[in-house]
Amino acid sequence: MITKTSYKENNKPNDVISMDPRAFTKVKKGRLIKLTITGDKKNIIVQDYLNMSINNAKLSIKRYGLTIDTLIYEYNNNIKKNRITSQYPKQGKILETNDKISFVVSLGDPPNYYTVSNLMNIAEKTADARSRLDDADFALESARLAKSQVIQQAGTNMLAQANQNTQH
After folding, report:
1. Most-buried pick from 20, 48, 64, 119 (CB within 10 A)?
2. Is residue 1 within 8 Å of 19, Cβ to Cβ?
3. How many Cβ atoms sit within 10 Å of the Cβ of residue 88?
4. Which helix (H) or strand (E) holds 166?
């Protein structure tokens, strides 16, 4: 007895893909043997899953031979928790067996609390950053000091040369 057909991409139509009882099991005469065979791809019209529970939606798409591609969870004030808020493709679109469908699922009302970020080690990282800024500032001031010292020495040397030239 054939109990159901199921499309499998790697099998040809009418291939046996499972059986009950399993192969090489001893059975009594007259025992019913159930077979699941592969069928052809079928066109499926996408249903309206909006506001349906995610569990019911999963059962429905499995029954139609579709699979879930993506589930996105987000807070929604208008739709109860674990209910579909959006779907792609939209209702009425024609898909084939094994095609994928994506859902956005409500997490219900947003929480009235927020998770505190991990501030551990922030003081250490801030101190490191300040230290690097201080080092850069010190290096800049050292360069400015060196520059002014070079200019001052050059001026002193020029004045000394000018005094020597006037004495001769």
Report:
1. 64
2. no
3. 13
4. helix 122-167
Bridge partners (DSSP) of residue 65 are none
Q: Which of 52, 60, 62 is nearest to 82 (CA)?
A: 52
SS3 content of the chain, % helix, strand, coil (to 5): 35, 25, 40
Number of residues in the chain: 168
The CA distances from residue 23 to 10, 20, 92, 94, 150, in Å, are 21, 8, 42, 38, 96
The ranges of the chain with pLDDT < 50 are none
Q: Distance between CA atoms of 48 and 90, rounded to whole angstroms?
A: 7
User: Would the CA dihedral through 15, 21, 26, 29 be positive or negative?
Assistant: negative
What is the residue whose two structure tokens read 């050059």?
A: 154
- CA dihedral of residues 82, 71, 99, 15 (deg, nearest 10): -80
